[in-house]
Amino acid sequence: MTEVAGRIPDFFIVGYPKCGSTALYETLKRNPQVYMSNWKEPNFFASDLYVAPDPGRAVPRPETLEQYRALFAAAREDQLVGDASIRYILSPTAAARIADAQPGARIIVLVREPASYLRSLHMQMLQSRAEVEPSLRRALELEPERRQGRLPTWIAREQPGVLLYSDHIRYVEQMRRYHAAFPPEQVLVLIYEDFRADNQGTLRKVERFLGLDPGPPAEVPQANPTVRRRVGLDEKLFDVAYGRGALASAAKRTIKLVTPRRVRRGAFVAAQRRVVLAAPEPPDEELMLELRRRFKGEVHALSEYLGRDLLALWGYSDLD
């Protein structure tokens, strides 16, 4: 029997999005004791959540165990291997599938105050072109019809739950899946606000959890920052860059003759950053208060579940 190349990861960063997972991934990737796939989110164990093919990728997402293991084939024997796929926390089946493949896996969860999390997530969905509704309040109001399949973008249609923001705030239910599949010493829950306030202290906690030798203080990059997408400008730029419309298609055919795909994509991203993306607008404080009131029960349940007063940390104690 031919031996399958690569390895099953030793640890998994399973979520949540916009809670520091990218910064942690980038930091661990620089650690010589760790091997992280260049593909940050293979999402292999979340097969129940259909993940759309990314047209910008040179290779398809892994669909077989052999393809998945191959992502980590370059890891040395003395390195820990990690997978950072934030959709795993949303999947009802990923925890059990990971446990079947790697019973000794270490699981890292990052969680954030619900209102700021949803605001940041909504802006990320706009930036990634999954969302077209610039108002978070309106996007939340649209959830009932989106549950019926009336979704605005091909990305949302390929990933039906991606724009159901409220479903992300089921912290205890989602974490229980991992505590059911793994013993408590193999699951580490980190608080985003702690990570922001004390990068080095949080990284030391992760090192101890993974059994890594402590090294010098590591620089934590500002990865995947929250930005605002100027929707109209982005649509026009996207039309030109990707050939939508007669004039844009003609221009694209000409550009393709003289410009490699990698360079074209890089130019689009650079132009998007300069022209389309802007600093986020101030939050709608009335909506933020409504969301905190709405999710106070979940925060209370999570506080009891983790044995930490998140009501006080996140400013929910005085909410009526």
Describe the 3D structure.
There is one protein chain. The protein has 320 residues and is an alpha/beta fold. The chain is built from 16 helices and seven strands. The chain has helices at residues 21-29, 65-70, 94-101, 114-127, 136-141, 143-147, 154-158, 171-181, 192-197, 199-210, 231-242, 246-258, 261-276, 285-294, 296-306, 310-313; strands at residues 11-15, 34-36, 80-84, 106-111, 187-191, 228-229, 277-278. The strands form two sheets. The chain has a five-stranded parallel sheet with strand order 2-3-1-4-5, sandwiched between helices. Strands 6-7 form a two-stranded antiparallel ribbon. Helix 2 (65-70) links the parallel strand 2 and strand 3 (80-84). Helix 11 runs antiparallel to helix 13 (261-276). The chain is globular.
Major sheet attributes: 5 strands, parallel
Q: Which CATH architecture of the domain at 11-125 and 164-210 would you pick? A: 3-Layer(aba) Sandwich
Provide the low-confidence segments as ranges.
Answer: none
State the CATH superfamily name of the domain at 11-125 and 164-210: P-loop containing nucleotide triphosphate hydrolases
